[in-house]
Amino acid sequence: MTKPAVRPQAIALDRSKELRITWSDGVVSLYPLAELRRACPCAGCRQQREETSRSALPLAAEPGMQRDMATAETVELVGHYALRIRWKDGHDTGIYDFARLRSLGTEDQEAQ
Prior knowledge:
Elements (H helix, E strand, L loop, with lengths): L7 E7 L3 E6 L4 E5 H6 L4 H12 L8 H7 L2 E7 L3 E6 L7 E3 H7 L1 E2 L5
Antiparallel strand pairs: 1-2, 2-3, 3-7, 4-5, 5-6
């Protein structure tokens, strides 16, 4: 018999700070928004990360733009397998599947 998939039971978004997910197995994970944005799984962001890693002098976004890039407007379910984050700068093509989210998060020790 296979183990049932772990799914979010509760999702809380602090639009300028972090995403907090309570999983069906009781684990509570925290995700700093800046880290989630850097880990965006969309094709465009993956390509940009690859190009930046090959560049001798990577370019950084302006501070205001960086703030908008790491500010979430909304989080929504995508089917029964993922979340989509709509960022303040308009980016919304990254689909974060639950397995990837679970691997990215850090456990909230205060929730224990």
